[in-house]
Amino acid sequence: MTELSEINTEARRAWMGLLARAPEDALMALWQKYATPPRFEWLRRPEIGGVMVRGRAGATGAPFNLGEMTVTRCSVVLEDGTVGHGYVQGRSKPKSEAAALIDALMQTAAANDVRAQVIAPLSEGVQADRTRRAAKAAATKVEFFTLVRGED
Fold first, then answer.
1. Please, what's the b/e burial string for 4-43 (b: 16 or more CB within 10 A of its CB; e: otherwise)?
2. Is it the case that residue 5 has pLDDT exceeding 80?
3. Mean per-residue pLDDT for 35-63?
4. What is d(CA 26, CA 106) in angstroms, rounded to the nearest whole number?
5. What is the mean pLDDT of residues 94-119?
6. Dihedral angle, C-alpha 22, 25, 75, 14, nearest 10 °
7. How confident is the model at residue 135, as a pLDDT?
8. pLDDT of the residue at 85
9. How many C-beta atoms surround the C-beta of residue 86 within 10 A?
């Protein structure tokens, strides 16, 4: 079992964020292609709930409650004692379970295989979708300009 202090916190934050936001069909397809899922026990079975989403005006203003979002969470422990957590957007218990197992495996010696077979392809797919949406938005961009009249 890898000690939690040995894991790069930023790297873990990145893969957990990716798993939380990833489209369910893409994540589940990659997870099912992965080698046999590990044996585990539940610490917390998948449960659906809500969280308050907060925002800041201009990213620097006072925080305000933007609204609620549905999330599903669960926690697992692998046979070697490694704990994984899954928090995902929406109401998908299978996605939450997959995210928790992937989080646990990313803390073990299997991390390189999981990264190559699940995390990297998922990240590429999410980035491609983001690029596609940005290009679509850029195509509708309107630039305004002001003509200066000779009167001052």
1. eeeeeeeeeeebbebbbebeeeebeebbeebeeebebeee
2. no
3. 91
4. 18
5. 95
6. -20
7. 85
8. 97
9. 27
Please give the Cα distance from 80 to 84 (Å, whole number). 12
Task: Give 125-152 pLDDT, tens digit per residue.
Answer: 988 888 888 888 888 877 777 766 766 5
Backbone Cα Rg of the chain:
20
Amino acid letter for position 102: I
C-alpha closest to that of 47 among 78, 87, 83 = 87
DSSP line for the chain: ---GGGS-HHHHHHHHHHHHHS-HHHHHHHHHHSSSPPPEEEEEEEEEEEEEEEEEGGGTS-EEEEEEEEEEEEEEEETTS-EEEEEEESS-HHHHHHHHHHHHHTTSTTHHHHIIIIIHHHHHHHHHHHHHHHHHHHHT------PPPS--
